[in-house]
Amino acid sequence: MTTELNRTGAAATPRTERTWMPWAVTSAAAGAHVLVFLDKGLLGIVATPIRTELGMSATTYGLISSATYLLTMISCLAIALSGRRVSTRAVLLGCGLLIALGQIPAALAGGALMLIASRVVVGAAEGPAVPLAHNAAYSWFPASRRGLPAALITSGASFSKIALLPVISLSVVAFGWRVGFVAIGVVALLWLVAWYLLGRPGPYAGAQGPAPARDRGWMRGLRTPTMLACLFATFAQGALAAVVFTWLPSYFQNGLGFSAATAGTLFALPSVAGLGALFLIGGLGDRIMRRGAPARVGRGRVGGICLLLSGLVLAAIPLVDVPAVAVAAVILGYGFSVTVNTVTFPVVSELFGAAHRAGALAMITASSAAAGVASPLLAGRLIDTGAAPGSGYTMSFLVFGLLLALGGLVFALAVDPARDRATD
């Protein structure tokens, strides 16, 4: 089955489309981000009530979270290896259905095994959803205009935490943690209908600006400095994101002393900063490139510096004693780190030909998921063994903040898709 969004037979000159269609498809693609990150965020909201009711240690709960990322990584690798033999539209529809069905074992869970089973199913579905949603939207835009669509899609994660997670958090406080998983299932079914109606390939499905002299497979592209830098930056931010989604509400509650309801509300605040950062960095990169600067500057320098500064802010949290200042550091540090997809995904889409774009984007998501396999478990271990109630949380920010800063530095110095296209 040939992918609808990777047809090489598409006309070289983009066909005329209704002007609203690119942004309608992009909005539907952003809905995939809303769904995926709403589900990830729920794990943080329900961490304390699940551990209390089922008597779990932080390490065990970290293992449950890690199960999601393990299957996400495997399914992303499967998409990357499948090349052109997948239908983007059909796979995304399947992902939405599996995410909905995967909530059932969690809602009925009486122990860790059913929760792990749920996360395995959901993780396998969430893996392809993010890269294929980007790939679908990119088929409607040329390479120089993909920063803003990337920002809109990635902002779905922020929207889920700003607009939806606080509501779910209040529902969990009022009715119990199982209600949260039911709510995610309902959202998944609603998105499924939206994607069925709007998910269509665009005029850039088979063409994308400057192309390599020969169409490269993702294994060959994996060896370029640009791709390696993208993989490492995404790995670093993915490790941090998995820790934040799993443990941030618990940090606010157990480390800083806020109530469960307040912790759920505070969980949304980094996404407010992230929402602004996404459009700032994505729009700035597009503007710089439209003025003639290469992606090395518009994506690499801009994005790398943003990640570097974000990591340093987070690494400084162990030095902070005032709860309000610690919350502000999380808001700014993690909030601006979510711009990683706004720069890495457009860079990768420019580096690879349309036939291999979906697979290359899946590799980026696999890298992020690979980090998420270990980081919640490691953070859980740090929390269990911390000398003071909040010390394990702050040590986690130190470790993963420094990793993010290093990823940003590498990204700023190594990214140059024009150079790597020319040295096939």
From TrEMBL:
The chain crosses the membrane at residues 20-38, 58-79, 91-117, 175-198, 226-248, 260-281, 302-320, 326-348, 360-383, 395-415. Residues 25-419 form the Major facilitator superfamily (MFS) profile domain. InterPro entries: MFS, MFS_dom, MFS_Na/Anion_cotransporter, MFS_trans_sf. It is found in: Cell membrane. It is a multi-pass membrane protein. Its main location: membrane. It comes from the Bacteria. The keyword Transmembrane applies. Keywords: Membrane, Transmembrane, Transmembrane helix. It holds the Pfam family MFS_1. This is MFS transporter. It comes from Pseudonocardia spirodelae.
